[in-house]
Amino acid sequence: MSLVEIACDESGYEGEKLVGGVTDVFAHASVVLDEAAAAECVAELRRRIRSPATVYKANHLQRSKHRPVLLWLLGPEGPVLGNAQVLLVDKTYFLVARLTEHLVGLAPDDLYAAGRSTGGTAWEDFLAAGNYLLRVRDYPDVVPNFFQSLDKLEFEDATLTALRQSREYAEEVRAKLFELPRMIPPLDPLLPAIARAVEYWGHDEPVAVAHDRQTTLWPERIEQLRLGARLARLELVDSFIHSGIQVADFLAGVARKIASDQLKGEDDAELTALIRPYLDPRSVWGDPASWKRLTS
Question: Its domain of life (predicted)?
Fold first, then answer.
């Protein structure tokens, strides 16, 4: 049986911190270019951009003066189209989904939509308290703080009502977070993204992953990824020595910026049209309007 080899990198990753950080979108890219094709792609980007930087990153492509280079990379004349996938994660929606899944077993969409439309300090406090509740770190008073934040929300919703009645179960969920050392944290989007990339490319074949180094990819977590998946191996490699990972970095960074802008209602129609073929339909996204612009 043949082995599918993919290279992966991410953009917008802040571990389990899903709100109150630097980015509102997480993007994970995987590419199936062989090393020779990936190296040729990076060399061509260097030729076109002409920057003295040792390692090129996505921000080089996102400068206005290099827009033609970005259009080439994403477009039909570039080497990436048809050979890459990007999973997008709206971090706020991912957090709300994890909260409703773990505490009440309900879909997150109505609560997310109500909170997003209402906004304000109370919604931000709820998100921050929920983030602390499910993080695998020992914070004081996280359960009472979470339920206090629920009481301050000024809209009514069936999921919100169920959450307000889930305190006893929230205590149990919080305690279970510390039962399995080095488990895959429920709020970490990286591990599920890698699993999805393996599923996307694997079909009936095992997948070998070369991934940019991340301190959260402990051996125990990698082993958990292999359970029930087609992951043959996962190797952590510095991006500056792996051209495929550099290409994945370009794609992840560009996709994250485009998606984040769309989430804010800022539409770059030309770039959105170019990134569309790369987007995984199973991305974790809760805002229908921006998702429609991204995908249709």
Answer: Bacteria
- Give pLDDT, residue 240: 85
Residue-by-residue DSSP string for 264-289: TT---HHHHHHHGGGB-TT-B---HH
Burial 78-102 (b: 16+ CB within 10 A, else e): bbbeebbbbbbbbbbbbbbbbbbeb
Q: Are strands 84-90 and 25-31 parallel, antiparallel or unpaired?
A: antiparallel
Instruction: Please check the confidence at residue 282 and state whether its pLDDT lies above 90.
Output: yes
Sign of the dihedral through C-alpha 168, 169, 170, 175 = positive
Most confident of 41-55, 119-133, 169-183: 119-133
CA angle (194, 200, 205) in 5-degree steps: 100
| CATH code 3.30.420 region(s) in the chain | 4-89+185-295
Largest CA distance in the chain: 60
Asked whether residue 228 carries a pLDDT value surpassing 70, the answer given is: no
Task: Please report the pLDDT score of residue 178 as a whole number.
Answer: 82
Give 241's DSSP letter.
G
Q: What is the mean pLDDT of residues 223-252?
A: 90
Is the domain spanning 4-89+185-295 CATH 3.30.420? The answer is yes
Work out the average pLDDT over 80-109: 97
CA distances in angstroms from 142 to 122, 174, 256, 294, listed in the order given: 16, 9, 31, 36
pLDDT at 52 over 80: no
pLDDT at position 222 is 87
Q: Are 106 and 162 in contact (CB under 8 A)?
A: yes
Dihedrals phi, psi of 30, to nearest 5 degrees? -135, 140
- For residue 74, give the 3-state DSSP assignment: helix
Distance CA 82, CA 204 (A): 19
Query: What is the distance between the alpha carbons of residues 181 and 219, in angstroms, rounded to a whole number?
Result: 12
